[in-house]
């Protein structure tokens, strides 16, 4: 951490780092979810939607990178051991192999995209309260993506309804 930021944030940095780490774990797991489902999708989703899921996966991976960069800036490291990711994550059990049809994949995605919206909203509030404007800016940037993700997932699910 740069010495000026260190002086300004003081002990608050540790609180922010903790939230950033859990967000990192969520993003890595969500990345893997979309990636895996995109490769192994079953049924009609394989021809119609698998590529979109892989694109979505790389979007989540980009979030993980932004978080890892900020954690490093604050003088720590993102959780490196994949076995820790489930432990610090906020989105519960996530086994992509259990959600391989398009509808099942999107229904599970809707849950964790909603959770991501809540989490980044809370992170933005917390960062603002603690005077960490860089993290605040990061949280609102990712939040805007997650709001889009949730809306998009909702729209696709709706379009699957038989009329
Ligand atoms: Fe994300
Ligand atoms: Fe997302």
Structural account:
InterPro entries: Ferritin-like (IPR012347), Ferritin-like_diiron (IPR009040), Ferritin-like_SF (IPR009078), Ferritin_DPS_dom (IPR008331). One of its GO terms (cellular component) is cytosol. The structure is a single chain. The protein is mostly helical and 163 residues long. It has a single domain (11-159), classed as Ferritin, core subunit, four-helix bundle (Ferritin). Helices cover 77% and strands 0% of the residues. The chain is built from seven helices and no strands. The protein has helices at residues 3-9, 12-40, 45-48, 50-73, 82-88, 102-129, 133-159. Helix 2 runs antiparallel to helix 4 (50-73), helix 2 (12-40) packs across helix 5 and helix 4 (50-73) runs antiparallel to helix 7. The longest helix has 29 residues, at 12-40. The radius of gyration is 17 Å and the shape is elongated. The model has no long low-confidence stretch (mean pLDDT 95). The protein binds fe (ii) ion (2 copies).
Largest sheet: none
Number of helix segments? 7
Q: Which fold does the CATH topology refer to?
A: Ferritin
The total count of strands amounts to 0
Report the radius of gyration as a whole number of Å. 17 Å
CATH superfamily: Ferritin, core subunit, four-helix bundle
Task: Round the mean pLDDT to the nearest integer and report it.
Answer: 95
* Amino-to-carboxy terminus distance: 56 Å
- Helix amount: over 70%
What best-fitting shape do the alpha-carbon axes yield?
elongated
Small molecules bound = fe (ii) ion
How large a portion of the residues is in β-strands, by DSSP E?
Answer: under 5%
Overall structural class, as computed from helix and strand content, comes to mainly alpha
Whole-number tally of structural domains? 1
**Series of H and E elements:** HHHHHHH
- If classified by CATH, what would the architecture be? Up-down Bundle
Low-confidence stretches: none
Task: Provide the CATH top-level class.
Answer: Mainly Alpha
Protein name: Putative ferritin, Dps family protein
GO molecular function, one term: heme binding
Domain Ferritin-like diiron: 10-163
Keywords: Iron, Iron storage
